[in-house]
Amino acid sequence: MEEGNDTLQEIAKKGRLLSLGEASRLLGVDETTLRRWADRRELRSVRTPGGHRRFAEEDLSALMRTKEKVPNLGSLDEVALEEARRRIREGKLADSPWYQAFDEEARVRMRLLGRRLHTLVADYITNPDRKALLAEARSLGNEYGSQLAAVKLSLKQVFEAFLFFRDSLVDVAKRVAIDRSLPAEKAMKIQEQVATLMDNFLLSTIETYERSFGAN
Description:
The chain is mainly alpha-helical. The chain folds into 2 domains: about 10-65, Multidrug-efflux Transporter Regulator, Chain: A, Domain 2 (Orthogonal Bundle); about 75-215, Globin-like (Orthogonal Bundle), CATH 1.10.490. It is about 70% helix and about 5% strand. Strands 1-3-2 form a 3-stranded antiparallel beta sheet. Strand 2 and strand 3 (about 55) form a beta hairpin. The chain is elongated and about 60 Å long.
């Protein structure tokens, strides 16, 4: 139910109300992810007179039963960014010809796109309703393809750029599985989900790149 349809008193009848921090700890996701779920009306919340979000404990329990949940995957985007920074420190990015083709402004745009991709992957893994997220991945791929075409990268360099981000996210999926001691079946499923999302992202990237490059 969307935020605002129920008063604070009405939702409180369902049991104990939890703050944003309490709810995020209960679900095992970060506060940013929880806000995103509430904004997308996947989770009901109400606001106090002071403007703070409150969640019914009963709703959170129901979400835990129905949402495909992996502990702490809400912070996957931050882990992915850490992995990307590690690769940068090791020179895996700065020495890449495709990266050197960007000026500073273009690098900023690409970093923003990369952050959105990392967040999207985290959402995709933790959200059973993935159709809209695949569409978002394709839309993001379109933006990515346009940026790559604008700096006139070769098709080989486009694939090199894609592989950098893909490998980063695959490594993150492996780290999550190890750090959370996930069963082999769950770990494999996470990697398959990352691959599916990235396949959609890549196809849109190439399609837009070819169209944009041909128009230049």
